[in-house]
Amino acid sequence: MNENNNQTNKFLPVWVWVIVLLQIFLVIFFSAGTAMSPSDFIPDVTELNYVTQLYITRNVTVALGIIIALLLKSHRALLLIFAVRLLTDISDVVTVYALNVEVIKESVPMVVALLIIPALFAISYLWKRIK
């Protein structure tokens, strides 16, 4: 009985924390790496340009949103920011195939495995927790 009470009093279970930290650190890592050396992260982009800067800003903004949701200890805020992140990543994947961007297609499985699928699990948990 006491173990069950401790489980419901925790803000997030460990597996959701792993997803949250994965989202934050991967996104910040790729954003910082792209800012420092765009050609290492985005093929055929040799220098920082407007579109690349938009990509970086969008990703850093979402990572900061996750951090703010954690600081607020808000399941609703975390659900919202994960939903935004998920829609953004799905949109990116669809765009890569719709526009036939060959140079980025090889990164799609990584995005699906490390960002989209874990986000779906986190969203499912947060949705149940809120309801």
What does this protein look like?
The chain is mainly α. It is 83% helix and 0% strand. The chain contains 7 helices and no strands. The chain has helices spanning 2-9, 14-36, 38-41, 50-72, 75-98, 102-105, 108-130. Helix 2 runs antiparallel to helix 4 and helix 2 packs across helix 7 (108-130). The radius of gyration is 17 Å and the shape is globular. The two termini are 22 Å apart.
Helix and strand composition category = mainly alpha
- H/E element sequence: HHHHHHH
What is the number of beta strands?
0
Helix content: over 70%
Protein topology:
Layout: H1 2-9, H2 14-36, H3 38-41, H4 50-72, H5 75-98, H6 102-105, H7 108-130
Task: Supply database-style keywords.
7 helices, mainly alpha, 131 residues, globular
